[in-house]
């Protein structure tokens, strides 16, 4: 009986130690994803996706339709 209590206490100690260590290391889990950084590259990709319907490629030349 004493061995079972010791094993349970040891397991709880290890569990809380790992939990504390993970909080200290700030490990990001899947449920805590950080938003993407707003970099110039991400803004350029977003702008490219918005302009995709208006861009026509002809070999090495790219034509962009101008909306009036």
Structural descriptors:
single chain; mainly alpha; 68 residues
Description:
With 68 residues, the protein is mainly alpha-helical. The chain has a domain at 1-29. It has helices at residues 2-25, 40-51, and strands at residues 55-58, 61-64. The longest helix is centred in the N-terminal third of the chain and has 24 residues, at 2-25.
Strand content: 5-15%
Q: Shape, please?
A: rod-shaped
Parts with pLDDT < 50 across at least 5 consecutive residues: none
Instruction: Tell me the total number of β-strands.
Output: 2
In order across it, which strands form the biggest sheet?
Answer: 1-2
Order of helices and strands: HHEE
Number of helices: 2
Main sheet overview: 2 strands, antiparallel
| Helicity, as a percent range | 40-55%
Mean pLDDT: 73
* Rg computed from alpha carbons, rounded to a whole number of angstroms: 27 Å
Distance separating the two termini: 84 Å
- Class derived from helix and strand content: mainly alpha
Give the helices and strands, then pairings:
Layout: H1 2-25, H2 40-51, E1 55-58, E2 61-64
Antiparallel strand pairs: 1-2
Question: What's this entry about, in short?
Answer:
With 68 residues, the chain is mostly helical.
């Amino acid at each position: 009986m004493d061995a079972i209590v010791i094993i349970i206490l040891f397991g709880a100690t290890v569990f809380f130690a790992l939990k504390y260590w993970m909080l200290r290391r700030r490990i990001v889990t899947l449920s805590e994803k950080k938003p993407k950084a707003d970099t110039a590259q991400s803004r350029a990709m977003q702008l490219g996706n918005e302009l995709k319907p208006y861009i026509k490629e002809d070999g090495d030349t790219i034509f962009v339709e101008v909306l009036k």
